[in-house]
Amino acid sequence: MQRAQISADRYKQFIPLSLPDRSWPDQRLSAAPRWLSTDLRDGNQSLAVPMDPERKLAMFELLVRMGYKEIEVGFPVASRDDHAFVRMLIEQERIPEDVWITVLVPAKDEAIRQSMQSLRGAPRATFHLYNATAPVFRQVVFKMSRDECKDMAVRGTHVMMKFAERTLADCDLRFQYSPEVFNETEPDFAVEVCESVMDAWEPGPGREMILNFPTTVERSQPHVFADQIEWLDRNLRRGEHVCLSIHPHNDRGTGVAATELGLLAGAERVEGCLFGNGERAGNVCLVTLGMNLLTAGIDPGIDFSDIDEVRQVAEHCTGMPVHARHPYAGDLVYTAFSGSHQDAIKKGMDALSREAGEAGVPEGDLPWRVPYLPLDPNDVGRSYEAMVRINSQSGKGGVAYVMSAHHGVDVPVADRREFADVIQSMADAEGGEITSDRIAAAFTSMYRETP
Ligand SMILES: CC(=O)SCCNC(=O)CCNC(=O)[C@H](O)C(C)(C)COP(=O)(O)OP(=O)(O)OC[C@H]1O[C@@H](n2cnc3c(N)ncnc32)[C@H](O)[C@@H]1OP(=O)(O)O
Ligand SMILES: CC(C)C(=O)C(=O)O
User: Fold this and answer.
1) Which atom of ligand 2 lies at the shortest distance from residue 214's CA?
2) What is the value of ipTM here, to two decimals?
3) Which domains does the chain have, with CATH numbers?
4) How far is the CA of 110 from the centre of ligand 1 (A)?
5) What's the whole-model pTM score?
6) CA-closest residue to ligand 2 atom 7
7) Atom number, ligand 2, closest to the C-alpha of residue 132
8) For ligand 1, atom 24, which residue shows the shortest CA distance?
9) What does the pLDDT look like over 312-322, one tens digit per residue?
């Protein structure tokens, strides 16, 4: 059936703010930001089947093991499970001393009261208040003027402070405010609301505040977001006790890019989820961000040395598979099927082992310089075995690599062409992958030599 084409006239380009003297393109990242995992909140609220307490705990413990120090553990007024999970963490004293849990709370008196109750007895916590500030929300959802919208945030802050005094006297409490849909909010209004909320909370020593700027629905190219963050950083009146945080989503598929440019532009903290779980096209992926830093020589402060364990726990908790091509963690991201890639990998691995031998050090101590592989698979707990797999796209270098890496046989250079042609014929005839064992069997039958 013929369908009408989509009319692009229905959609409008995002109008960027003007920042001709932007300085972020000349910045370089030199340290990791503060991270907050929102796997147990934004990640959880987007699942068809939200995590039960067992899966929530498995995710919390994974995040702690990986080294996340700020973890949004739920939206206490959302469900019985969300509330119960916060209580369980506190009552069973499961929160390590250097970890801050966060709860997300809409700016409504009763939600604030109940969320505060969920935190009773917590030694330290972040209370995260939000309301949407963008025009479409003011006009369509809340039917409020700018002033009424600002008052909603300020009133929420005062109510939170009042309840905190009663309920959380012994808690080391941080306050976080998010103008939801910041990216579509008039910049001057975002600043006006945030400064009013800051004035209410009065940040200072022991009263840290986090201002968190979400691209609730990603709508623009990443450099437009970076301009918004640099503009904010210049125009927001904030002192050393106020942290500038970002919370990017991935609706346009540019969440990671927006985050990295946002960091160049002055953001100090990033909120996201493992493998980009989260509403719609997801939150920004914390694994990709962390590994991008690591492979640029910057310690992310997060342990990715067993990426498959991270993946397995995340898949168990979310019920969703990680894509085979997901950066750094997918099944195929350290694998080459194509001949010229395999040849270069083999030459790179041979060179690495030669250099290590000459220097008398383990290969893992040398800088990684193997073509086509952005990092050493061993560093994330993967073996070298899957790096080269053979099908009709492969060549003699790849076949020789499999014989050497899997079977300890160095195929003589003079035989490599002939042997690879036989494997190529098998692959052409069958169309699929030729396993390492079948390659070894072919080698034995051709050269009567058992690997
Ligand atoms: C971008 C984000 O991810 S924000 C976080 C979103 N997360 C969630 O919504 C998950 C948890 N939420 C829930 O469990 C429920 O939506 C609840 C408990 C918060 C509210 O439930 P309900 O009272 O049934 O209301 P409902 O789900 O229809 O939400 C809409 C109401 O919340 C109001 N609202 C929405 N956001 C906010 C906010 N930040 N502050 C105050 N009120 C808000 C809406 O105006 C609407 O109010 P109305 O009923 O007076 O028109
Ligand atoms: C509440 C905020 C931080 C949020 O989740 C969003 O806007 O996506």
Assistant:
1) 7
2) 0.94
3) 15-318 (3.20.20.70), 339-447 (1.10.287.1400)
4) 12
5) 0.95
6) 216
7) 7
8) 78
9) 999 999 999 99
